[in-house]
Amino acid sequence: MILGLPDEANLLSHAYMIDGDVDTDVECLQEYFLRLFGIEDIYQSVDVTVFDGSEVGVDEVRELVKNTVLQPYGNQKIYLFLHADKLSVSAQNALLKTIEEPAKNTVFFLLTNNSYKLLPTILSRTVTLYHNNTIQESSEEKVWIDCFLSGVFERDLIALQHALDEISSDREKSVRYLECLTERMATLLKGSYSEKYKYFYRVELLALLASVQRAMKLIRANTGVTATLDTMLLNIMEGID
Asked: What is the pLDDT of residue 10?
């Protein structure tokens, strides 16, 4: 389930970025559109346009911009970008203007599992949504995540380095802990702030999440764990300064 989507069409924002498994997101949105608009098949509906970011260039996006002024046949015109992170920079910039000045009764959904590849200007103008938490933290993982987030909050470089040293010698463990950290940050971004973290700014959490996701992907791709975690830490400190 995608958390944060409203139950009424008139409460929809103009643009959403959904960070997760794209195929799962499509299935969830299909159920959501059926419930909200009676759309039985997003690929057959005249009011839903589906793009694959890996196949769409800047010219197609510019053509889309022209068509957004047309009124929907039903209640809402929906533009769905699968693998939005694969859009070129020029295509993202072309899309940005439309997101900044959306036509009436138009909503954009950008689906990705690599949100850090989207332009910061795109991220700042979309509502970020995540799936319900599916990872259960062990007591050891919970303590580690609490210590790590406290280190971020306190800007405590020594504490952060110590936390990363605990997992840097084990590739599998580092991926698991970063997965748990990602889920915890997703919970914070959904608004489930504890008293301890209530002073985190959303932009800081987004920067932190992007750095962790990038590191997790690189470690899974067999890059050096220690070097990747060191780079992640540097990016985190730069992102929250």
From this structure: 84
Q: What's the pLDDT tens digit per position in 124-169?
A: 888 877 665 556 788 999 999 999 988 988 889 999 999 999 999 9
SS3 state at 165: helix
Cα dist from 142 to 43, 107, 121, 170, 178, whole Å: 42, 37, 33, 18, 12
First vs last C-alpha separation in the chain: 34
Angle (CA) 218 199 18, round 5°:
45
Amino acid letter, 108? F
Neighbouring-strand partners of residue 79: 49, 108
Domain positions in the chain are 15-130, 139-240
Assigned fold of 15-130: Rossmann fold (3.40.50)
Q: How far apart are CA 201 and CA 199, in angstroms?
A: 6
The token duo for 61 is 């996006």
Considering the entire predicted model, what is its pTM?
0.60
Residue 49 is classified by DSSP as E
Q: Is the pLDDT of residue 51 over 80?
A: yes
